[in-house]
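Per reviewer request, we include the raw input and output of the structure prediction for the construct analysed in the revised manuscript.
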Amino acid sequence: MAFCRFCAAPLGHVFVDLGTTPLANAYLAPTREAIAAEQRFPLRVMVCDRCLLVQVEEAVPAETVFPADYAYLSSYADSWLAQCRAYAGKMIARLGLGSRSLVVEIASNDGYLLQFFVERGVPVLGIEPAAHAAELARAKGVPSEVLFFNRDTAPALAARGVAADLMPANNVLAHVPDIGGFVAGFPVLLKPEGVATFEFPHLLNLIRGVQFDTIYHEHYSYLSLVAVERVLASAGLRVFDVEKLPSHGGSLRLFVCRREASFAEETAVAALRAEEAAAGLDRPAGYDGFAPRVETVKAGFRRFLAAARAEGKRIAAYGAAAKGNTFLNVCGATADDILFVVDRNPEKQGRLLPGSHVPVRPPEALYEVRPDYVLILPWNLADEIRAHHAAIADWGGRFVTAVPEIRIY
């Protein structure tokens, strides 16, 4: 029997079972030894009937999921960087941040966000568990500490005088196995009127858009406002504002403060609570019926592959993204179906995608090989990718997305 990683209630309610897959960011060296040593883990997602936290049933240790050479870097999506620059400007204005303030980002990666505060003269500190990403951040002038942040590691930072006016935490809340212990670290560093912001893909959009490919072991939890508010309350924190964002297929940005802080709750919070309740996310039965919709998407993609093969069409892919790896593995696609995938991140080039073993090449490979179809795996960036590579139309190439259904552009 598995138990909820937040409230410890028994887990018996299946949201979706995606079988057994490798870690979505565990890219392989192109060797027989690496392929033979590849590990796979069950990927079954449960709903806690008590606290309504949606979560993967079997947790893989964080040190396995996020090793020191973890390949994900945040600075290879222009639209994401534009959103980060806008966030920095907005928060500097909203909170009156300046040279005497401190922004402490949790899971700061390669400095993709904090660099924009540095540009504006606002002191920063990045907290990042992946040593390589932290090293890249320091090269950008972003001071960074290598550690996993939680209630146990935060006091040492506070003892050194770290006190934050702003604590961004972008796309990390879902990545921590002990979500309660992670959130409990925030009030240790927040000033009395400090603000934390949490961004994460909204579970409601995952369900509506059949975004099963955003499920992978690195995402321990799949988050709704109703569940996150309960986690925050356990640490003495509350949500006072919320924004909907287009990133990652539809995300939320929660503005969070101490329970006793002076921030008044904005009307957007109540409106989102009502929207989730109307969709059934405030009760266990609201999570039923997702698995059959996943099977429909898988069947549509397999029909596309079969038709392309029958017509002699060649398929490449764009974006060696974690969501793409879940998608290919759950659908059973391999290097026999996809010639290669291109990606701007040099850390991934020359390696193989986990599970499917599709080789990763630089974007220039598209123009050398001229495939008939280019499957965009990070479908949330489809507009950006299509704009950058519109020239594939010169040889009759066409872009394809497969979630929530096959679309040939």
